[in-house]
Amino acid sequence: MVRFVDIIKLQANYLCFLASQIQEGVYQKHGFAVLPYPTNHSQAVYFPDLPYSLKFWQSIRRSPHQSVARLFPKEARDEIARLIPKANQAPPPSGWKKKERFFFTVLKEMRLFEEELNKIASISVLLTPYGTAGSFHYLLKKSGKVDLFVTHREDNPSAFLAKTLVLALLLFQNPKYASEKWQEKQTIADFLFSKTKLASLFPDYRLNLKWNSKLPTKYLLDSRKYLQKLGFGEEKKFRLINEQIFYGERKLDRILSAQEKNILAGLIKKNGEALTHDQIAQILWQEKAAEKFSLWAITKVIQKLRRKLQLVGINQNLILTLYGQGYALTPP
Asked: What domain count does the chain have?
């Protein structure tokens, strides 16, 4: 069912799509690191550092769509085609051809996407050195069938391609998975590749899932600098006014517990420097800090704080983990 493609026009169009997502803040909202160099981390987006013109960004903004399956304005595509190096087509992901038939057989056996699979007319996969681990979109034909267009970053294993296809089927099943239920979609895919027959077919998925669970601090800082260079730096920031916490103009006190508020206030006061484990313990347990000290408990409180920030649309990666030290907000 899968046809691999590698055409310079499609590569250029994909970079236009990446630009549109950066311009709209989609990757930033979902905690991805946008980097000017390649890395195989699943939460990183490789957007090459090229001399993009102002006309390019204006053209992207005027585009009537943000679909990886549709062509962006010709002037934007032509500019990218001139800038990116010409390269030989990459081979399909290792082992994919042997696993492809079994992959679709397993999906049919589970009867999760029976209706969706029956409606797919074609699946085209663009192998690319750029972008995320994978992206997708589908085009509805007059016949009621759909053409599915998928991208796969060529440095990633076949398991990532399989996951992208599952995510695409979930979106086809329920359009709400595109935005409102984005995290739910990821959780379903992780479950399928960890607890079903797909786990034995793609054992490398679990290894990569564990390895890529957190973005290194270097990637987060490099992403912040690169986005600022591109003109899309984070304008909003945390502020502490009369012991009340704001993010931009948004007041956060009502969504935070007393402990979470005190820790976030401590991070804000540190202004990008480390709030140590000992200092956090002092915030949590005060005079009993030495007696109750627990790195596990501190980690859990930080996790809850990040989760609450993410639920209201704030990038949870604004709180950096400084291993062996504590935590800090990304430098302003």
From this structure: 2
